UniProtKB/TrEMBL annotation, chain A:
Signal peptide region: none
Lineage of producing organism: Bacteria, Bacillati, Actinomycetota, Actinomycetes, Micrococcales
Protein's organism: Sanguibacter suaedae
InterPro entries: CBASS_pafABC_assoc_protein, PafC-like, PafC_HTH, WCX_dom, WYL_dom
PROSITE patterns: WYL (PS52050)
Name under which the protein is recorded: WYL domain-containing protein
Region (Disordered): 219-238
WCX domain sequence ranges: 239-312
UniProtKB/TrEMBL annotation, chain B:
WCX domain residues: 245-322
Transmembrane segments: none
Protein name as it appears in the record: WYL domain-containing protein
Coiled coil location: none
InterPro entries membership: CBASS_pafABC_assoc_protein, WCX_dom, WYL_dom
Domain named WYL: residues: 151-213
Pfam families reported for this sequence: WCX, WYL
Amino acid sequence: MAERASERFVRLVGLVSYLETSGPVPVDDLARRFGVTPKQILTDVDTLWISGTPGYWPEDLIDFDADSYDRGIVHLTESRGMTRPLRLGTRETIALVAALRALREVVAAGGDTEQTAVVDSALTKLTAATGEATNALDVRLTVDAAPHVMSAVRTALQNRTRLRIDYVNASDITSTRTVDPIRLLPSDDHTYLHAWCTDAQGERTFRTDRILTATALDDPVAPTTSDRPAPPTYRPQGHTARIVLSSRARRVAEQIPVETTENLPDGDFAITVRVANPTWLRHLLLRHAPDVRSVDPPDLAHDVTTTARRALDAYPDPQGA
Amino acid sequence: MPPSTPPAARLLNLVIALMNTSGRMTKDEIRSSVAGYDDATSTDAFERMFERDKDALRDMGVPIVAVDTGGHSQDAGYRIDKDAYALAELDLTPAEVGVLSLAAQFWQDTALHVDTARALTKLRSVPGAGDDGTDTIAGLSPRVRPLAGAYEPLLDAITARRVVTFTYRAASTGQVRTRTVEPWRVAVRGGWYLLGHDRDRDAPRSFRLTRVEGTVHPTGPPGAFTPPADVDVDTLIGLATPEPTLHALLAVRPERASALRARATTHPDHADNPVVPGRDVLRVHFTTLSAAVHEIAGYGDAIVVLDPPDLRDAVVTHLTTALHLTPTRSTRG
């Protein structure tokens, strides 16, 4: 795996400044701390060992105790003045502060004052240490669950208990499910609940704004629940449809997972989407009907037209009659 | 022959050399004495290598200062501002380090991931800071959608207060034009935006980054403008949600439109209405007429609007446009 030189440089100087104060540290502990393999730590130490001030005679170099090294322990004996941790770069601070601020809102929305306080103090210390204007980036995650739903989900996650939810899916069908919550995935468009669904016997991701009611149960979740990795970004399956939209609908197209976008000469544009769920697509097309120029394949267009016709027939006094 | 020095080791040797030099080092001294620069085969190659390294190190927070002695350019040299080099005392608790690690996950799929990963490495190199506390906030895994390349140049321009130009496709017309903008802020609100002062329109504007085509170019000197202290992000993007003002009476098929039912405030009995048999009558609030039309039309025949009449007419007009999607003439053909 090719690591960027900048990442490795930051770890190299980080290792020296850490070891300067920590004293001897086992290789495995360093690996865990810096999030790399023990082999990488040994490679880093080898590089540090031949680095130093110009001349590069033995007394110019960063040095380690060789006996400790053979025993798998890193013991720094000469740091060549690299004793203090490197400050954060401007973009690094901005990215971290923006993330913390967004996180603070999510945690606060969950109603946990203790955790909110931890985020607050981390934020205060970080801004005090960097002293930079950090308004360049402003991120807000969408917490769109009803307050009682959010509260029940947080309770279940904290106590590792099951959750019963009434959920309305993208096809407008409501079901009651018992789930083992794994984690909340607050994101910039919606907050999702990643859970093991005991009814479907599989992992599912639920949009929290579609959870109508939630109750934290007393039953504990299955023991392996929290070990499940976060799901990859959702990618729908199914055959594709090509939809031509007027420019006004650009914002709409930006909110849904599209395979391709093609700009057409007159300001219209064409998207291709995977039709994982025909009901979802019909809903979308009806919603934006005035901006839809054409739909391919034709049976999708026919489906939309038929539904629109049925909807219009339900009005007792149709326009133009 | 010694093996060539890896780039990370070259950066490290440059920093150690500049940290330990008594005054400054000239480029010539750096080229002839710092390990790694002897790999450069020509003066041009050295210049390129050194400029790139200098930019990379500054990007990472290393305060490399150019020292101009007033003599000719061969005398110009470089040193590191030692006071500015070090991270201030942070004294983070393990829980706070955990929170920071969690915050770093935000950007896992984006260009910002590189920035936060480095920041985290630096924070972890502070002795005393906790080893791991990722469990501090149980079961939370925030994420932000990935972003194309515009972020880095924009953020650098915002911090330097430099004007930028880019090609932008307007959503309303689909027209492509070059925009000249004083960049104030990048914002994430269900998508990535740039907020700034549009010099051609002479007004504040928001730009959706997915509609930026090609590269963002900084232009002109740093410090070219002063951004306002307060930027109302939501209003500029057009997200500020007004209070619900539209109260609609809807006849809804049983078991349908549950998401909308969850917001329904009353369930009045309108059994005498001819539309109603077999349907539930709900009162639902909407923010605007157009928001109501879109949402209701999406449910197709599940919903019939009873009141107000202007909403009913708008929904009927909206649904009528859907009839044109099937080219009836050609099928009769």
